[in-house]
Amino acid sequence: MTNPSVELERIDPENVVISEPVAGSEFPVHLMYLETLDGLYAPIGLRRPSGSGPFPIVLLASGNGGGGMAWVRDAVRNRGWIMERLLGAGYAVAWLRYRAEVELGYNNGGKLVEDIRQGRQLMNRSPLEYEDEISIIEHVKALPDIDGERVGIIGMSHGGEMVLKITSEYDGVAVGVASEPASHEFLALSPDNTVTVNEETRLRNIEEMQMAEVEKVRARIDLDTATERISSINTPILVMGRETDHLQGIFRTTYDLLNEAGKDVEWVSYDHPLHGYLYPLRGEDGTYECNDVQTAAIDGVIDYLDRYLKP
Length: 311
Prior knowledge:
Layout: H1 4-9, E1 17-20, E2 29-35, E3 41-47, E4 55-62, H2 68-78, H3 81-88, E5 92-96, H4 105-109, E6 114-117, E7 120-123, H5 129-141, E8 146-156, H6 158-169, E9 175-179, E10 196-197, E11 204-205, H7 214-220, H8 223-231, E12 237-242, H9 248-260, E13 265-270, E14 281-282, E15 288-289, H10 292-309
Parallel strand pairs: 4-5, 4-8, 8-9, 9-12, 12-13
Antiparallel strand pairs: 1-2, 2-3, 3-5, 6-7, 10-11, 14-15
């Protein structure tokens, strides 16, 4: 019987990596904790393809934050089809997690400023979730078998908005995919009465916000603010819409404004009932539920990534 204390001694507390198999796959997952700006740790599940590195890598994000390592392990197990496809295409790939979204934290918090007080770190505000992802990117780029010049990011929903926030102030990734980007905060959109306020918390409930039409969205955004944020983006971005989504107007307006600003941007849109169709789900029978639309979407994303991440 293994002595737990001996097993623990094999783990470097400052570089925690725990590997475990993934059901139905030859590629294990390496569970890691990476330090963020303020010394707290964010979890990721990293997988590497066959062969020897250095590998290009794609980082996956979905929705707002929270959930920790349990969330990462569940994503690897039950939303791993996209990982298998990327691994098969020669990419290292990781699901990542970050701190919870802060209501209007991006709009109201201002630029993060760091200083020193009594010899220790001082900030004007706490880091936000997209800044956690930047920290993760920097750590992953330094791994010995990863090519730090060939990093791509895919974000879905709020994760898609994070792609825009990241690339507007950080040039450290080669390419981004913003799938169904819920970029209302990035575009400085003023919601209509389809948004309600939780009487107990006084925070907005935007789950049923109706923004399917481009004309409606453009009439409600702060164009000067959105244009200023877009102006600093230098990263190629694929924006992906969903035909029946109640936020399709936001998705398309995101692309339109990037295109009008002369950015390297492309647009595709698919008709699928699942919000997050780019990340097929494992069904109750243990097999992935991935139809022709999702297969085409993933094929298109891999082709797009290849243009920027393959030599």
